[in-house]
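User: My advisor, Dr. K., asked me to get a structural model of this assembly before our group meeting. I'm new to this, so sorry if the format is off. These are the inputs:
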Amino acid sequence: MTAILQILFDALSLGSLYALGALGIALIFGVMRLVNFAHGDYIAFCVFAMLWPSIDAAAIVFAGNLPTYLLIPLILCVGAGLSVLSEILVFRRFRNANPATMMIASFALGFVIKYLLLMLYSSRPKSIDLWSNLSQQIEIFGARIPPLQVITICTTIVILLALTAFLKRTRYGLEMRAAAENFTMARMLGVRANLVIMLAFALSGMLAAAVGLILVTQTGTVDINMGANIMLVAFVATVIGGLGSLPGAVIAGFLIGGLSSLMQAYLPADARPFRDAFVYGAVIVMLIWRPNGLFSSKAAKQRV
Amino acid sequence: MTLLSIENISVRYGKLTALRRASITVNEGETLFVTGPNGAGKSTLLKAIAGVVTPREGFIRFNGAHIAGKAPEDIARMGFSMVPEGREVFGGLTIEENLRLGTGMRADKDQAARDLEQVYAVFPMLKDRKDAQAGVLSGGQQQMLVIGRALMASPKLIAIDEPSLGLAPKVTDDVYATLLKLRDSRGLTLLIVEQSATRAGLTGGRMVLMRAGQVALEGDARQLVKGDALRQAYFGYGDH
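Assistant: The format is fine. Below is the predicted structure of the whole assembly, which you can bring to the meeting.
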């Protein structure tokens, strides 16, 4: 029972991280058919924004010293700002290009951000002490669980509920859903293309910031490649979920997180180092079974 | 009074020329049918007005302003409402959400709420199922929905591409009856692309026949359908 509870918390907190990452990618794919590979670098950028630029091995914490109630909004704004800026400076020029060209542009942007961080902060990982007391384990029904896991899960639930309310209850949410389904028709009804796309980028950037904050609290290190792994898993999750489907991305994120945690716990010890191979093997089987993902997007369904 | 005037516009898709120096005017309050064989450029004409494709040359004036090259959302906000071919309902949104999308550009929210009730009064079927996903509606119901959606923008002109496409003749009758009723009660101007010249003749109004990207013939719909000129223009002169 205790072990099961522990695995459940592991699975949910890892899945939360993947789900938030996948959601950030799916939001943008929905409105402009762009798979934004720079998303992982947004995550790293948001975390580095807490430090003063320096190539010293020791991190010089700057914004990171702000009180929590200021730090979180600030980092969310950094994420939103970076994301919106990249849409205005880069992706807007590729609005009518084919998806492959846009994807390459996003790779290029990712490298630019990464090397910018490299120049400012050097490539050495730095340690940073952010809310580290959240990682000290507490006992819940006999299971030893870091409060951070509970906070991660609760934060994710709040973000998902807020995003759902935004999409379902507000005018901009309605316009964003319509744009995701049929962008040209939405524009012919007066939906402002630039506004909706910038909004999607802002939300996506804030999700990247949230992922960055959770990651850095978990690991206590800042590294220019810290977003890469999450980005990869999140991308896989959006494909499994059905590109363009927001619920699909979230569910697939939790599925991959759950599967990883389960395998970590139950694979024979010798096979454990190859956990990711098993996880991605399951992904391949899943895609053979449903090539369009678990929830093929509404736009695709409509053509039938 | 001229509401929409299209002067010598040309549209090309790569090497394919869809419109070559086509000119058409639409007067306020009238019904103009645009008919012609497949590939004559009828749909391209509507797309050019809506701002979905940009003409290589020529002018488009709507309600006194130049609109060629403007963004679709800006043209829509000037009072041009488009019902494209294949209807394009948002299948994942509810019926009411589809209708509410049409009102985004309007500042007068109270009037928009009243308009929603009016659209429901015209199409009671939509009200009964307002929370259902639009994707489950039949073709005829979807056509009613997109006409209702276009009305919600309170437009000066509604352009409809092939309203009868894929509909049973009885349903097409209903669609046209509704359109004409709306035109008369709201002072709307209608621009209808219709492959069936017979349908245009039945409905009445002015008719333009397009062929190979140009206007081949123009006149009163009822008169044209009776005469021989239409058939000749439709199929070409003496080349078969």
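One thing worth pointing out at the meeting: Chain B touches chain A through 24 residues (CB under 8 Å).

User: Perfect, thanks a lot.
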